[in-house]
Amino acid sequence: MTAPETLPEITHAVTQTQVDAYAEASGDHNPLHTDAEFAASTPYGRTVAHGMLVLAFISEMMTNAFGEVWASGGKLKIRFRAPVFPGSTITTVGVLRGSPTNGETAYEVACKDQDGQDVITGEARVPWASA
């Protein structure tokens, strides 16, 4: 089977309710994420979504594309580029980086906000057998 050139995009609207639920699930109750009054006093001026919440959107894209092979053997190397605020719309993208090497297929992956700004960039590697 040939590796897909691009992966199906996923779009999520990030809400404060979602950020609060992530704080409960993860145990990360940093007030920057959950306390509007505190967050207003920071350089961001408002609450910020957890980086790992946004990163999960890339894992969702990879799971949709590659299923169990991604879950059991996928690898990510990423950089957080910009904060994501409740009210943002985030879209994932994935583009093949060339021919498979070392038994893996590499994809350039990113999360972009509604203005097209990269908020996360990086590389995802999938065992070649999955592609």
Would you mind describing this structure in some detail?
With 131 residues, the chain is α+β, with helices and mostly antiparallel strands. The chain has a domain of 81 residues: Hotdog Thioesterase (Thiol Ester Dehydrase, Chain A, Roll). The protein is 32% helix and 27% strand. The protein has five helices and five strands; from the N terminus they run E-H-H-H-H-H-E-E-E-E. A five-stranded antiparallel beta sheet has the order 1-3-4-5-2. A hairpin with a 5-residue loop joins strand 4 and strand 5. The longest helix has 16 residues. The relative contact order is 0.23.
Quick structural gist:
With 131 residues, the chain is an alpha+beta fold. The protein contains five helices and five strands; from the N terminus they run E-H-H-H-H-H-E-E-E-E.
Structural descriptors:
Thiol Ester Dehydrase, Chain A, 131 residues, alpha+beta, 27% strand, 32% helix, 5 helices
Map the helices and strands.
Elements: E1 11-13, H1 16-26, H2 31-34, H3 36-40, H4 51-66, H5 68-73, E2 75-80, E3 89-96, E4 104-112, E5 118-127
Antiparallel strand pairs: 1-3, 2-5, 3-4, 4-5
Number of strands: 5
Helix content: 25-40%
Q: Low-confidence parts lasting 5 or more residues at pLDDT below 50? A: none
Q: Tell me, what is the CATH class of the domain at 50-130?
A: Alpha Beta
CATH homologous superfamily name of the domain at 50-130? Hotdog Thioesterase
User: Roughly what is the average pLDDT, rounded to an integer?
Assistant: 94
- Overall, the morphology is elongated
**Helix segment count?**
5
Question: In percent terms, what proportion of residues is strand?
Answer: 25-35%
Q: Quote the CATH topology of the domain at 50-130.
A: Thiol Ester Dehydrase, Chain A
Instruction: Give the neighbour order of strands across the main sheet.
Output: 1-3-4-5-2
**Shape-level CATH architecture of the domain at 50-130:** Roll
Report the span from N to C terminus. Answer: 6 Å
Structural class: alpha+beta
Oligomer: single chain
Largest sheet geometry: 5 strands, antiparallel
